[in-house]
Amino acid sequence: MPRILITGMSGSGKTTVLQELSRRGYRTIDTDYDGWVLPDGTWDEPRMSTLLASHSSLVDSGTVENQGRFYDRFSAVVLLSAPVEVLIERVSVRTNNTYGSSEADQSAIRKYVLDVEPLLRNGATLELDGRRLVPELADWVERLITESDQVSRPEGDP
Asked: Full-prediction pTM beyond 0.85?
């Protein structure tokens, strides 16, 4: 069951990699959009449970406090990371999300890199440098999907 979670700090490249994987034909969900995250900053657990139960092949992205409750339902958890100054530069110029444009947001990101990123690293099955080219990052995730799909099928199944 190739379900992959891509996680990381704001500006690490999660959305961009997800867009590339979607372009390649994979089912993707960016939980920063469409109501997946509740006002308290956690995933809507019943909705996420339904999603993961109904899709055996999916690439999901997000970084929320309760994501660890779902790790056992993913075949891999990929952490995208980058130096904090790269993250700040990216969030300050992006146009698809206003988070990170203020000094307060950027201060929070710096704190999250120190406090939250180590927790994400502990739960990740793979860490990738978010400064790599997007096609290369997508290739890594695609390999995980392929490897997971081969492991989940009995030998001889197409």
From this structure: yes
